[in-house]
Amino acid sequence: MVEVPETLPARMYLLAYDLRKQRMTARGSRLGYVLRGAALTELFLDGRLEEQRGRPVPGTPGEDPYGLLGQIAGSRPRPWHHWVRREARSTVRAVREELERGHWIRVRERRVLGLFPAEEITVRDPRVVKELWGGASSALRGRPVAHVNSYDAAAVALAAAGELASVLPGSERRRHKRRIAELTARSGPAAPAVRKVIRAQRAAMASS
Where in the cell is it found (predicted)? Predict the structure, then answer.
């Protein structure tokens, strides 16, 4: 079996990579929302976050790799979607640097049209992305939801919420709507919050 990153945000970053096109299929704030949702989901699944009155609160003490526990503990109670939006772009940088340090990806700086700075992301071992995609695909189509690996279930929930075409094209999201809802319910409140934030962003852009 191919080794994959341990953290859920790192896994979601790699799942957002399109092997055929050799580029990220989600960028900027949308990718940030997915990664923030993944970080919140990981903390929730591990019991480091709990929910009270529809808001995340600190649970069992533990590691806080992206600083979310500290932020939540130091704030008045706020809804999940607040924490999905907060510092989304800096979370993209943190996860990208994590993957680069672990030699999962290669990052090359370049300039578009010789003027605009951009980053070219390359996955060092495509088998890692295929392994993660296989886990998500199995969660979508395989065994009963209760027996699905929790991170694979969360990957499907987050990919659907974030509309990651590299994992779930629109046709697949529609075809497996009920199964996705079951996997989302199992994964906790963060994935629905990601969907809410992305829909609100789209509505705001449409009305502007």
Answer: Golgi apparatus membrane
Question: Which token pair is 48?
Answer: 């480091």
- Measured between alpha carbons, how far is 185 from 25 in angstroms, rounded to an integer? 25
| Candidates 3.40.50.300, 3.30.565.10, 1.10.3630.10, 1.10.3720.10; CATH matching 8-203 | 1.10.3630.10
Task: Centre a 10 Å sphere on the Cβ of residue 76 and count the other Cβ atoms it contains.
Answer: 5
Using 50, 70 and 90 to split pLDDT, how confident is the model at 141? confident
pLDDT at 113: 64
What sign for the dihedral angle of Cα 61, 81, 93, 149? positive
Q: Where are the domains of the chain?
A: 8-203
